[in-house]
Amino acid sequence: MLMAHPAVLRNLVEQYVTLRTLHAEDGGTEVRRRMDDVAYTLCVSTGTRDVDTALVAARHRLPGARTMDDSVLAT
Questions:
Q1: CB of 45 within 8 A of CB of 4?
Q2: Cβ burial 10-26 (10 Å sphere, 16+ → b, else e)
Q3: Buried b (16+ CB within 10 A) or exposed e, 65-74
């Protein structure tokens, strides 16, 4: 599986968190579409199927993450 660069993952996580904080899901069509696009890109970039798992996986791959502890990702 291809791995997204940590800078790309950090940017995607920041965008998603910002949109969620601003309650984009309750916003206009364009804002909801942007949030959906970021969520989809996060999922594709991390090889996951839902945005919550994608956020955990992305944060796990960022510099400073505890790479030896993958218990959160265990199925």
A1: yes
A2: bebbebbeebeeeebee
A3: eeeeeeeeee
Enter the pTM of the model. Answer: 0.77
∠ CA 40-45-48 to the nearest 5 degrees? 70
Cβ distance 60 to 48 under 8 Å? Answer: no
Contact between 42 and 17 under an 8 Å Cβ cutoff? The reply is no
pLDDT in tens, the chain (75 residues): 677 889 999 999 999 999 888 877 777 888 889 999 999 999 999 999 999 999 999 999 888 765 555 555 555
